[in-house]
Design a protein that fits this description.
Helix content: 40-55%
CATH topology of the largest domain: Butyryl-CoA Dehydrogenase, subunit A, domain 3
Number of strands: 9
Order of helices and strands: HHHHHHEEEEEEEHEEHHHH
Number of domains: 3
CATH superfamily of the largest domain: Butyryl-CoA Dehydrogenase, subunit A, domain 3
Largest sheet: 7 strands, mixed
Shape: globular
Radius of gyration: 21 Å
Distance between the termini: 48 Å
CATH class of the largest domain: Mainly Alpha
Strand content: 15-25%
Number of helices: 11
Length: 386
């Protein structure tokens, strides 16, 4: 694979501060050095690079936009650039960091007791502990309000019973944040690895996110510790908003990787009178569409990030970001695969790996259609979910 050249058609970097450029460059160098040379093998063998977790913590990449407890306290734009560069490597890297920071550390920081924060946040930030987020169930994905997992009181503690599916980092997690129905509505709980009645098993045979750990969690009267502030489905959805923001930036990284590989391939590949296929009109049309969509996605991600840093971004803005950027990245990956021809399915190249990963990224944290309905309700004032 040729060395990556920045994908910046409209001088996007001029909109970034020196600190933001430094964060982007640092993570890019880390991914280029530690991950990209090995990702084809990890994907082929379905291996998550767990040895990178602590180095990611050392760089401040876990919970990077959170305050205190050892977190890097970066801006949301800096955090987004981290996610971009991690997913330029592979969705598995960004998924791990998203779950660790947005879906485990964020709710502990936002809804946990001081004791819970002191115990878990520094360890999760350093990568000494791994967390997972248990909301989705086998029968309830887009409709989390229908979850069947239930928590009942047992003295001063709660016991949880139910099953969660498609859980990133599930079998390697030291702590799981489980959402369950109670007599007072949906609440969030921490369940530690090794708790009697709590087990995790990996989902095998995935065609996507193969370098990521994806698990099923089973709870049979397993004791959980209540997160005091995690009350109602809205608190769970607030966590998803944090993760969806990181996905909007991450998908951009995957799109950049696919575009770059397709462009370099098209300039080198010769067909028909020994001319590079980049000289053909149809190929140039594809590349023009791809770089236009990347540029639009960059500007949307940056604007939502700036709004978020000013406290003005809400869940609908993030839905637009996730919806637009993932769909754009998926189309770019498909066009890049077409430009590479038969080579586009070989794992010597990154395009097909990103294409397969993006099919999952398009589904989790709200499908394209779910985000369409979120935006539809925002602009009309009329909910269409029921």
């Amino acid at each position: 694979m040729l060395p990556f050249r920045d994908v910046d058609f409209a001088d996007f970097d001029s909109l970034l501060s020196d600190e933001e450029k430094l964060v982007c460059r640092t993570v890019r160098e880390f991914v280029e050095r530690e991950a990209i040379p090995h990702l084809g093998k990890w994907n082929r063998e379905a291996v998550f690079p767990r040895h990178l977790v602590k180095p990611m913590g050392n760089l401040g990449l876990l919970g990077a936009n959170l305050k205190g407890y050892g977190c890097a306290e970066m801006s949301n734009v800096q955090y987004g650039l981290i996610m971009q560069e991690l997913e330029r490597g592979d969705s598995a890297l960004r998924s791990f960091a998203s779950v660790q920071g947005a879906l485990v550390m964020f709710p502990i920081a936002a809804y946990g007791s001081e004791e819970q924060k002191q115990r878990w946040l520094p360890a999760l930030q350093r990568g000494d502990a791994i967390g997972c987020f248990g909301l989705t169930e086998p029968d309830f994905g887009s409709n989390p309000a229908g979850m069947r997992t239930r928590a009942v009181t047992d003295g001063n503690r709660f016991v949880l019973s139910g099953e969660k599916a498609w859980i990133t980092s599930g079998s390697i997690a030291d702590v799981a944040l489980i959402w369950a129905q109670t007599d007072e509505g949906i609440r969030g709980f921490l369940v530690e690895k090794g708790t009697p009645g709590f087990t995790a098993r990996d989902i095998e045979g995935k065609g996507s996110l193969r370098a990521s750990v994806t698990s099923i969690l089973s709870l049979t009267e397993a004791r959980g510790e209540l997160l005091p502030g995690a009350k109602g489905l809205r608190t769970a959805l607030d966590c998803l908003t944090q993760a969806r923001y990181s996905i909007g930036w991450g998908a951009l990284g995957a799109a950049m990787a696919c575009y770059h590989e397709a462009l370099e391939y098209a300039k080198a590949r010769k067909q028909f009178a020994g001319r590079p296929i980049a000289s053909h009109q149809l190929v140039q049309a594809k590349l023009a569409d791809m770089i236009t969509e990347i540029t639009k996605a960059q500007l949307l991600a940056l604007h939502v990030g700036r709004l978020k840093d000013r406290g003005r971004a809400d869940f609908a803005h993030v839905s637009m970001l996730k919806r637009n950027n993932v769909r754009a990245a998926l189309e770019i990956a498909r066009e890049a695969r077409d430009i590479l021809g038969a080579n586009g399915i070989a794992d010597e190249y990154c395009v097909f790996r990103h294409l397969c990963n993006l099919e999952s990224v398009s589904t989790y944290e709200g499908t394209y259609n779910i985000h369409t309905l979120i935006l539809g309700e925002r602009v009309t004032g009329i909910p269409a979910f029921e």
